[in-house]
Specification:
alpha+beta
Length: 101
């Protein structure tokens, strides 16, 4: 995949649809490799693919204020008390706001 940057520079990138990439010996970059698998080499899934959900459901959370008590909450409290509540609501994306290391 060849991209032209806003500066006019041409940059080579791995195609996002590459199924196989390889790094040549003593190189820092990977190259996409076309590899045409035979029918017996293609992975066969054991179970059906899960049904797609109707829409994305997002829960925005601030761990520090996730407790009902007047205190700065912990990740342990969030894991034990809040995440099960989120899951019961059918939500599956959690956005952590104001996350600091």
């Amino acid at each position: 995949l060849l991209l032209e940057t806003s500066d006019g520079e041409l940059v080579d990138r791995i195609c996002p649809w590459s199924r196989y990439v390889q790094r040549p010996e003593k190189a820092n970059v990977y190259h996409g490799v076309f590899y045409n698998l035979s029918e017996d080499q293609i992975y066969k899934f054991k179970y059906p693919q899960p049904k797609k959900r109707d829409r994305l459901k997002i829960y925005e959370a601030h761990v520090g204020i996730s407790s009902s008590k007047e205190e700065v909450s912990t990740y342990e409290n969030f894991r034990i008390n809040v995440i099960p509540h989120i899951v019961k609501q059918g939500l599956f994306i959690i956005i952590f706001s104001n996350f600091n290391k």
